[in-house]
Amino acid sequence: MAVFPRRRQAIVIATVVGLALSATACGDGDGNDSGSGNETSAECSAFEKYSGNDGKKVTIYASIRDAEADLLEQSWKQFTDCTGIEIDYTGSGEFEAQLQVQVDGGNAPDIAFIPQPGLLATFANAGKLKAAPADTKASAEANYPADWLKYSTVNGTFYGAPLGSNVKSFVWYSPKTFKEKGYTIPKTWDELIALSDKIAGTGEKPWCAGIESGEATGWPATDWLEDIMLRDQSPEVYDQWVTHQIPFNDPKVAAALDRAGTILKNDKYVNAGFGPVKSISTTSFQEGGLPILDNKCSLHRQASFYANQWPEGTKVGEDGDVFAFYFPAVDPSKGEPVLAAGEFTVAFADRPEVQAVQNYLATPEYANSRAKLGNWVSGNRGADINNFSNPIDKLSVQILQDQSKVLRFDGSDLMPSAVGAGTLWKAMVDWINGKDTASTLAGVESSWK
Questions:
Q1: Where is the signal peptide (predicted)?
Q2: How far apart are CA 196 and CA 173, in angstroms?
Q3: Nearest-angstrom CA–CA distance, 259 and 262
Q4: Which of these, 96, 100, 246, 436, has the minimum number of CB atoms within 10 Å of its CB?
Protein backbone atom coordinates (compact mmCIF):
# COMPACT_ATOMS: atom_id res chain seq x y z
CA MET A 1 0.00 0.00 0.00
CA ALA A 2 0.94 3.52 0.01
CA VAL A 3 2.91 3.62 2.96
CA PHE A 4 3.99 6.94 3.77
CA PRO A 5 1.67 6.01 6.55
CA ARG A 6 4.06 3.65 8.06
CA ARG A 7 7.36 5.38 8.38
CA ARG A 8 9.25 5.91 11.55
CA GLN A 9 12.43 7.69 12.35
CA ALA A 10 16.12 8.02 12.11
CA ILE A 11 17.09 9.51 8.84
CA VAL A 12 19.79 11.58 7.33
CA ILE A 13 17.95 14.88 6.95
CA ALA A 14 19.28 16.83 4.02
CA THR A 15 17.96 20.10 5.41
CA VAL A 16 18.53 23.46 3.90
CA VAL A 17 18.69 25.41 7.14
CA GLY A 18 19.08 28.78 5.54
CA LEU A 19 15.91 28.65 3.51
CA ALA A 20 13.37 31.33 3.99
CA LEU A 21 11.22 28.52 5.35
CA SER A 22 12.85 29.06 8.71
CA ALA A 23 11.64 32.63 9.00
CA THR A 24 9.05 33.35 11.64
CA ALA A 25 6.94 36.07 10.12
CA CYS A 26 6.33 37.92 6.90
CA GLY A 27 5.16 41.22 5.60
CA ASP A 28 1.86 42.01 3.98
CA GLY A 29 1.38 43.17 0.43
CA ASP A 30 1.85 46.82 1.47
CA GLY A 31 5.32 46.26 2.85
CA ASN A 32 4.13 46.29 6.49
CA ASP A 33 5.33 43.46 8.68
CA SER A 34 2.49 41.32 10.04
CA GLY A 35 4.67 39.20 12.34
CA SER A 36 8.03 39.64 14.03
CA GLY A 37 9.42 41.41 11.01
CA ASN A 38 11.87 38.72 9.94
CA GLU A 39 10.28 38.32 6.52
CA THR A 40 10.03 41.04 3.90
CA SER A 41 7.05 41.75 1.73
CA ALA A 42 9.13 40.67 -1.27
CA GLU A 43 9.65 37.23 0.27
CA CYS A 44 5.93 36.93 0.85
CA SER A 45 4.80 38.26 -2.52
CA ALA A 46 4.40 34.72 -3.87
CA PHE A 47 1.74 34.05 -1.24
CA GLU A 48 -0.46 37.10 -1.86
CA LYS A 49 -3.01 34.97 -3.67
CA TYR A 50 -3.69 33.17 -0.39
CA SER A 51 -4.19 36.36 1.65
CA GLY A 52 -7.27 37.28 3.64
CA ASN A 53 -7.10 34.35 6.03
CA ASP A 54 -4.86 35.73 8.77
CA GLY A 55 -5.56 34.12 12.14
CA LYS A 56 -7.54 31.22 10.70
CA LYS A 57 -6.67 27.60 11.56
CA VAL A 58 -6.68 24.52 9.33
CA THR A 59 -6.37 21.00 10.72
CA ILE A 60 -4.58 18.30 8.73
CA TYR A 61 -4.53 14.58 9.54
CA ALA A 62 -2.31 11.98 7.88
CA SER A 63 -0.18 8.93 8.48
CA ILE A 64 3.14 10.79 8.12
CA ARG A 65 4.83 11.03 11.49
CA ASP A 66 8.05 11.37 13.48
CA ALA A 67 11.02 12.82 11.54
CA GLU A 68 9.05 13.00 8.31
CA ALA A 69 6.30 14.95 10.04
CA ASP A 70 8.91 17.47 11.19
CA LEU A 71 10.02 17.95 7.59
CA LEU A 72 6.40 18.22 6.47
CA GLU A 73 5.74 21.05 8.89
CA GLN A 74 8.93 22.83 7.83
CA SER A 75 7.82 22.59 4.21
CA TRP A 76 4.84 24.89 4.67
CA LYS A 77 6.33 27.23 7.29
CA GLN A 78 6.89 30.17 4.98
CA PHE A 79 3.34 29.76 3.68
CA THR A 80 1.90 29.93 7.20
CA ASP A 81 4.18 32.81 8.21
CA CYS A 82 3.21 34.85 5.19
CA THR A 83 -0.51 34.08 5.12
CA GLY A 84 -1.16 34.01 8.85
CA ILE A 85 -2.94 30.67 8.48
CA GLU A 86 -2.16 28.27 11.31
CA ILE A 87 -1.84 24.63 10.25
CA ASP A 88 -2.48 22.16 13.06
CA TYR A 89 -1.00 18.86 11.85
CA THR A 90 -1.43 15.41 13.39
CA GLY A 91 0.19 12.19 12.13
CA SER A 92 -0.91 8.73 13.23
CA GLY A 93 0.13 5.14 12.61
CA GLU A 94 -3.57 4.20 12.85
CA PHE A 95 -4.57 6.81 10.30
CA GLU A 96 -6.87 4.69 8.12
CA ALA A 97 -8.97 3.36 10.98
CA GLN A 98 -9.00 6.56 13.02
CA LEU A 99 -9.92 8.79 10.09
CA GLN A 100 -13.11 6.78 9.65
CA VAL A 101 -13.82 7.11 13.38
CA GLN A 102 -13.33 10.86 13.27
CA VAL A 103 -15.53 11.29 10.21
CA ASP A 104 -18.28 9.09 11.64
CA GLY A 105 -18.12 11.04 14.90
CA GLY A 106 -18.56 14.38 13.18
CA ASN A 107 -15.00 15.39 14.01
CA ALA A 108 -13.33 15.13 10.61
CA PRO A 109 -10.12 17.07 9.99
CA ASP A 110 -10.27 19.93 7.52
CA ILE A 111 -7.76 18.16 5.26
CA ALA A 112 -6.46 14.60 5.10
CA PHE A 113 -3.64 13.10 3.07
CA ILE A 114 -5.20 9.82 1.93
CA PRO A 115 -2.92 7.22 0.30
CA GLN A 116 -5.72 4.88 -0.72
CA PRO A 117 -7.94 5.94 -3.64
CA GLY A 118 -10.32 3.22 -2.50
CA LEU A 119 -10.72 4.89 0.90
CA LEU A 120 -10.99 8.27 -0.79
CA ALA A 121 -13.85 6.93 -2.91
CA THR A 122 -15.58 5.57 0.19
CA PHE A 123 -15.70 9.05 1.73
CA ALA A 124 -16.64 10.68 -1.58
CA ASN A 125 -19.52 8.28 -2.17
CA ALA A 126 -20.74 8.92 1.36
CA GLY A 127 -20.87 12.65 0.60
CA LYS A 128 -18.20 13.49 3.17
CA LEU A 129 -15.60 15.11 0.91
CA LYS A 130 -15.67 18.55 -0.69
CA ALA A 131 -14.85 18.95 -4.38
CA ALA A 132 -11.38 20.40 -4.92
CA PRO A 133 -11.25 24.15 -5.66
CA ALA A 134 -10.87 25.17 -9.30
CA ASP A 135 -7.30 26.39 -8.69
CA THR A 136 -6.30 23.04 -7.20
CA LYS A 137 -7.73 21.20 -10.18
CA ALA A 138 -6.02 23.52 -12.67
CA SER A 139 -2.64 23.11 -10.96
CA ALA A 140 -3.03 19.34 -10.80
CA GLU A 141 -3.98 19.08 -14.46
CA ALA A 142 -0.97 21.18 -15.43
CA ASN A 143 1.56 19.22 -13.38
CA TYR A 144 0.48 15.58 -13.09
CA PRO A 145 -0.25 12.79 -15.57
CA ALA A 146 -3.96 12.31 -16.24
CA ASP A 147 -3.74 8.74 -14.97
CA TRP A 148 -2.80 9.98 -11.50
CA LEU A 149 -5.69 12.42 -11.35
CA LYS A 150 -8.26 9.75 -12.06
CA TYR A 151 -7.37 8.12 -8.74
CA SER A 152 -8.85 11.08 -6.87
CA THR A 153 -11.79 11.55 -9.21
CA VAL A 154 -15.05 9.88 -8.20
CA ASN A 155 -18.16 9.95 -10.37
CA GLY A 156 -16.71 12.80 -12.37
CA THR A 157 -15.78 14.99 -9.40
CA PHE A 158 -12.13 15.79 -8.69
CA TYR A 159 -11.38 15.80 -4.96
CA GLY A 160 -7.68 16.46 -4.56
CA ALA A 161 -4.19 16.66 -6.05
CA PRO A 162 -1.37 14.22 -5.32
CA LEU A 163 1.05 15.27 -2.60
CA GLY A 164 4.02 12.97 -2.07
CA SER A 165 4.72 9.91 -4.18
CA ASN A 166 6.92 6.85 -3.95
CA VAL A 167 8.25 4.07 -6.13
CA LYS A 168 7.66 0.60 -4.73
CA SER A 169 9.68 -1.53 -7.14
CA PHE A 170 13.02 -1.49 -5.32
CA VAL A 171 15.26 -4.01 -3.53
CA TRP A 172 17.60 -2.53 -0.91
CA TYR A 173 21.13 -3.85 -0.50
CA SER A 174 24.63 -2.92 0.72
CA PRO A 175 26.90 -1.80 -2.17
CA LYS A 176 29.94 -2.43 0.03
CA THR A 177 28.90 -6.01 0.82
CA PHE A 178 28.06 -6.73 -2.82
CA LYS A 179 31.49 -5.51 -3.88
CA GLU A 180 33.32 -7.46 -1.18
CA LYS A 181 31.49 -10.70 -1.97
CA GLY A 182 31.44 -10.33 -5.72
CA TYR A 183 27.65 -10.17 -6.02
CA THR A 184 26.19 -8.50 -9.11
CA ILE A 185 22.88 -6.70 -9.29
CA PRO A 186 20.31 -9.04 -10.88
CA LYS A 187 18.52 -7.87 -14.01
CA THR A 188 15.90 -10.64 -14.23
CA TRP A 189 13.82 -12.68 -11.81
CA ASP A 190 15.89 -15.77 -12.55
CA GLU A 191 19.08 -13.86 -11.73
CA LEU A 192 17.47 -12.65 -8.48
CA ILE A 193 16.70 -16.24 -7.48
CA ALA A 194 20.21 -17.35 -8.52
CA LEU A 195 21.70 -14.65 -6.29
CA SER A 196 19.44 -15.70 -3.43
CA ASP A 197 20.55 -19.31 -3.85
CA LYS A 198 24.20 -18.25 -3.94
CA ILE A 199 23.87 -16.35 -0.67
CA ALA A 200 21.85 -19.15 0.94
CA GLY A 201 24.61 -21.54 -0.11
CA THR A 202 27.02 -19.71 2.19
CA GLY A 203 24.81 -20.57 5.15
CA GLU A 204 23.30 -17.09 5.34
CA LYS A 205 19.66 -16.20 4.75
CA PRO A 206 19.61 -13.62 1.96
CA TRP A 207 16.30 -11.88 2.63
CA CYS A 208 14.90 -9.91 5.54
CA ALA A 209 11.34 -8.62 5.79
CA GLY A 210 8.79 -7.16 8.15
CA ILE A 211 5.06 -6.56 7.67
CA GLU A 212 3.97 -5.46 11.15
CA SER A 213 2.50 -1.95 11.06
CA GLY A 214 -0.04 -1.53 13.85
CA GLU A 215 -3.58 -1.59 12.56
CA ALA A 216 -2.16 -1.65 9.02
CA THR A 217 -0.16 -4.84 9.56
CA GLY A 218 0.13 -6.83 6.35
CA TRP A 219 0.42 -4.02 3.81
CA PRO A 220 4.09 -4.67 2.88
CA ALA A 221 3.17 -8.21 1.78
CA THR A 222 0.49 -6.83 -0.55
CA ASP A 223 3.22 -4.86 -2.33
CA TRP A 224 4.99 -8.13 -3.16
CA LEU A 225 1.80 -9.52 -4.68
CA GLU A 226 1.12 -6.36 -6.68
CA ASP A 227 4.66 -6.01 -8.00
CA ILE A 228 4.71 -9.64 -9.11
CA MET A 229 1.26 -9.37 -10.72
CA LEU A 230 2.73 -6.58 -12.86
CA ARG A 231 5.65 -8.84 -13.77
CA ASP A 232 3.70 -12.04 -14.41
CA GLN A 233 0.84 -10.39 -16.28
CA SER A 234 0.20 -7.45 -18.59
CA PRO A 235 -0.75 -4.03 -17.19
CA GLU A 236 -4.23 -4.65 -18.58
CA VAL A 237 -4.65 -7.83 -16.51
CA TYR A 238 -3.37 -5.93 -13.46
CA ASP A 239 -6.10 -3.32 -14.06
CA GLN A 240 -8.72 -6.06 -14.36
CA TRP A 241 -7.55 -7.53 -11.07
CA VAL A 242 -7.69 -4.31 -9.03
CA THR A 243 -11.14 -3.45 -10.42
CA HIS A 244 -12.44 -7.00 -9.83
CA GLN A 245 -13.08 -7.73 -13.49
CA ILE A 246 -11.32 -11.00 -12.76
CA PRO A 247 -11.87 -12.69 -9.40
CA PHE A 248 -9.33 -12.27 -6.65
CA ASN A 249 -8.66 -15.99 -6.65
CA ASP A 250 -8.11 -16.18 -10.41
CA PRO A 251 -5.28 -18.60 -11.33
CA LYS A 252 -3.22 -15.62 -12.50
CA VAL A 253 -3.35 -14.11 -9.01
CA ALA A 254 -2.59 -17.46 -7.41
CA ALA A 255 0.48 -17.85 -9.60
CA ALA A 256 1.74 -14.41 -8.55
CA LEU A 257 1.25 -15.12 -4.86
CA ASP A 258 2.99 -18.48 -5.21
CA ARG A 259 5.91 -16.72 -6.90
CA ALA A 260 6.11 -14.31 -3.95
CA GLY A 261 6.08 -17.34 -1.69
CA THR A 262 9.20 -18.75 -3.32
CA ILE A 263 10.98 -16.00 -1.40
CA LEU A 264 8.78 -14.94 1.52
CA LYS A 265 7.82 -18.46 2.62
CA ASN A 266 11.20 -20.06 1.92
CA ASP A 267 12.97 -21.06 5.15
CA LYS A 268 16.30 -21.00 3.32
CA TYR A 269 15.76 -17.36 2.33
CA VAL A 270 14.06 -15.62 5.29
CA ASN A 271 13.97 -14.02 7.79
CA ALA A 272 17.61 -13.00 8.23
CA GLY A 273 18.31 -11.25 11.50
CA PHE A 274 14.90 -12.02 12.99
CA GLY A 275 13.94 -15.69 12.90
CA PRO A 276 11.84 -18.12 10.85
CA VAL A 277 9.27 -17.24 8.19
CA LYS A 278 6.57 -16.43 10.75
CA SER A 279 8.76 -13.74 12.28
CA ILE A 280 7.96 -11.62 9.20
CA SER A 281 4.46 -10.99 10.57
CA THR A 282 5.78 -9.70 13.92
CA THR A 283 8.74 -7.70 12.59
CA SER A 284 7.84 -4.05 12.10
CA PHE A 285 8.11 -2.74 8.58
CA GLN A 286 10.41 0.01 9.85
CA GLU A 287 12.93 -2.52 11.18
CA GLY A 288 12.55 -5.05 8.37
CA GLY A 289 15.63 -4.05 6.39
CA LEU A 290 17.95 -2.90 9.16
CA PRO A 291 19.92 -6.20 9.36
CA ILE A 292 21.53 -5.16 6.06
CA LEU A 293 23.67 -2.71 8.04
CA ASP A 294 24.94 -5.54 10.25
CA ASN A 295 25.63 -7.88 7.31
CA LYS A 296 22.93 -10.22 8.60
CA CYS A 297 20.80 -9.69 5.52
CA SER A 298 21.58 -8.95 1.87
CA LEU A 299 18.21 -8.13 0.28
CA HIS A 300 15.10 -6.24 1.37
CA ARG A 301 12.26 -5.40 -1.01
CA GLN A 302 10.73 -2.09 -0.03
CA ALA A 303 9.73 1.25 -1.52
CA SER A 304 11.80 4.37 -2.05
CA PHE A 305 10.54 5.87 1.19
CA TYR A 306 12.47 3.23 3.11
CA ALA A 307 15.39 5.65 2.75
CA ASN A 308 13.82 7.38 5.75
CA GLN A 309 14.17 4.30 7.97
CA TRP A 310 17.95 4.00 8.05
CA PRO A 311 19.63 5.23 11.25
CA GLU A 312 21.09 8.71 11.36
CA GLY A 313 24.44 8.79 9.65
CA THR A 314 23.62 6.06 7.13
CA LYS A 315 24.78 7.04 3.66
CA VAL A 316 22.28 6.21 0.91
CA GLY A 317 23.85 5.93 -2.54
CA GLU A 318 25.57 3.70 -5.05
CA ASP A 319 28.80 4.13 -3.08
CA GLY A 320 27.08 4.34 0.29
CA ASP A 321 26.08 2.06 3.14
CA VAL A 322 22.82 1.16 1.43
CA PHE A 323 21.16 1.67 -1.92
CA ALA A 324 18.43 0.02 -3.96
CA PHE A 325 18.12 -1.64 -7.36
CA TYR A 326 15.06 -2.15 -9.54
CA PHE A 327 13.00 -5.21 -8.52
CA PRO A 328 13.73 -7.29 -11.63
CA ALA A 329 11.13 -8.11 -14.25
CA VAL A 330 10.44 -11.74 -15.06
CA ASP A 331 10.94 -11.03 -18.76
CA PRO A 332 12.59 -7.60 -19.31
CA SER A 333 11.98 -7.89 -23.07
CA LYS A 334 8.29 -7.30 -22.32
CA GLY A 335 9.04 -4.14 -20.40
CA GLU A 336 10.00 -3.18 -16.87
CA PRO A 337 6.82 -2.14 -15.04
CA VAL A 338 6.91 0.08 -11.98
CA LEU A 339 4.60 -0.01 -8.97
CA ALA A 340 4.04 3.41 -7.41
CA ALA A 341 1.90 5.05 -4.76
CA GLY A 342 1.28 8.34 -3.01
CA GLU A 343 -1.10 10.48 -1.00
CA PHE A 344 -3.92 12.73 -2.17
CA THR A 345 -4.81 15.99 -0.44
CA VAL A 346 -8.57 15.98 0.13
CA ALA A 347 -10.82 18.21 2.21
CA PHE A 348 -13.77 17.62 4.49
CA ALA A 349 -14.43 21.38 4.72
CA ASP A 350 -14.51 24.17 2.15
CA ARG A 351 -13.82 27.29 4.20
CA PRO A 352 -11.63 29.84 2.33
CA GLU A 353 -8.57 29.10 4.48
CA VAL A 354 -8.95 25.36 3.86
CA GLN A 355 -9.12 25.91 0.12
CA ALA A 356 -6.08 28.20 0.30
CA VAL A 357 -4.03 25.42 1.91
CA GLN A 358 -5.32 22.83 -0.55
CA ASN A 359 -4.48 25.13 -3.47
CA TYR A 360 -0.94 25.76 -2.24
CA LEU A 361 -0.14 22.09 -1.63
CA ALA A 362 -0.99 21.32 -5.27
CA THR A 363 1.58 23.75 -6.71
CA PRO A 364 5.12 23.20 -8.01
CA GLU A 365 6.18 25.87 -5.52
CA TYR A 366 5.18 23.65 -2.64
CA ALA A 367 6.71 20.56 -4.26
CA ASN A 368 10.05 22.33 -4.65
CA SER A 369 9.89 23.68 -1.11
CA ARG A 370 9.42 20.20 0.29
CA ALA A 371 11.96 18.63 -2.06
CA LYS A 372 14.72 20.95 -0.83
CA LEU A 373 14.32 19.56 2.68
CA GLY A 374 15.19 16.06 1.48
CA ASN A 375 13.84 12.53 1.90
CA TRP A 376 10.75 13.01 -0.24
CA VAL A 377 9.53 12.14 -3.72
CA SER A 378 6.98 13.86 -5.93
CA GLY A 379 5.48 13.15 -9.31
CA ASN A 380 4.81 16.86 -9.82
CA ARG A 381 6.30 17.71 -13.21
CA GLY A 382 6.96 21.23 -12.01
CA ALA A 383 9.39 19.93 -9.42
CA ASP A 384 13.03 20.56 -10.33
CA ILE A 385 15.00 17.30 -10.25
CA ASN A 386 17.97 19.23 -8.85
CA ASN A 387 16.03 19.95 -5.66
CA PHE A 388 16.03 16.24 -4.78
CA SER A 389 19.35 15.52 -3.09
CA ASN A 390 18.89 11.95 -1.86
CA PRO A 391 20.06 9.59 -4.66
CA ILE A 392 17.11 7.20 -4.25
CA ASP A 393 14.66 10.11 -4.28
CA LYS A 394 16.25 11.54 -7.41
CA LEU A 395 16.09 8.13 -9.11
CA SER A 396 12.43 7.78 -8.11
CA VAL A 397 11.52 11.21 -9.46
CA GLN A 398 13.24 10.41 -12.75
CA ILE A 399 11.15 7.23 -12.99
CA LEU A 400 7.92 9.04 -12.14
CA GLN A 401 8.60 11.80 -14.65
CA ASP A 402 9.61 9.36 -17.41
CA GLN A 403 6.54 9.15 -19.63
CA SER A 404 7.88 6.00 -21.32
CA LYS A 405 7.59 3.96 -18.11
CA VAL A 406 4.64 1.65 -17.53
CA LEU A 407 3.49 2.70 -14.06
CA ARG A 408 0.62 1.33 -12.05
CA PHE A 409 -0.70 2.56 -8.73
CA ASP A 410 -0.61 0.35 -5.66
CA GLY A 411 -3.36 -2.23 -6.20
CA SER A 412 -4.59 -2.63 -2.64
CA ASP A 413 -4.92 1.14 -2.35
CA LEU A 414 -7.13 1.20 -5.44
CA MET A 415 -9.45 -1.54 -4.19
CA PRO A 416 -12.48 -0.80 -2.01
CA SER A 417 -11.07 0.12 1.39
CA ALA A 418 -12.82 -2.76 3.15
CA VAL A 419 -10.86 -5.13 0.90
CA GLY A 420 -7.58 -3.40 0.07
CA ALA A 421 -7.02 -1.94 3.54
CA GLY A 422 -8.98 -4.62 5.34
CA THR A 423 -9.39 -8.25 4.42
CA LEU A 424 -6.36 -8.30 2.09
CA TRP A 425 -4.00 -6.99 4.77
CA LYS A 426 -5.26 -9.59 7.23
CA ALA A 427 -5.17 -12.35 4.62
CA MET A 428 -1.51 -11.67 3.86
CA VAL A 429 -0.64 -12.03 7.54
CA ASP A 430 -2.45 -15.39 7.63
CA TRP A 431 -0.62 -16.43 4.46
CA ILE A 432 2.77 -15.59 5.93
CA ASN A 433 1.81 -17.55 9.03
CA GLY A 434 1.12 -20.69 7.02
CA LYS A 435 -2.25 -20.42 5.31
CA ASP A 436 -2.24 -21.84 1.77
CA THR A 437 -2.59 -19.68 -1.32
CA ALA A 438 -5.96 -21.00 -2.47
CA SER A 439 -7.68 -20.44 0.89
CA THR A 440 -6.06 -17.05 1.31
CA LEU A 441 -7.28 -15.73 -2.03
CA ALA A 442 -10.71 -17.34 -1.71
CA GLY A 443 -11.22 -15.50 1.56
CA VAL A 444 -10.42 -12.14 -0.01
CA GLU A 445 -12.69 -12.92 -2.96
CA SER A 446 -15.56 -13.71 -0.60
CA SER A 447 -15.08 -10.41 1.21
CA TRP A 448 -15.23 -8.50 -2.07
CA LYS A 449 -18.51 -10.13 -2.99
A1: 1-25
A2: 12
A3: 5
A4: 436
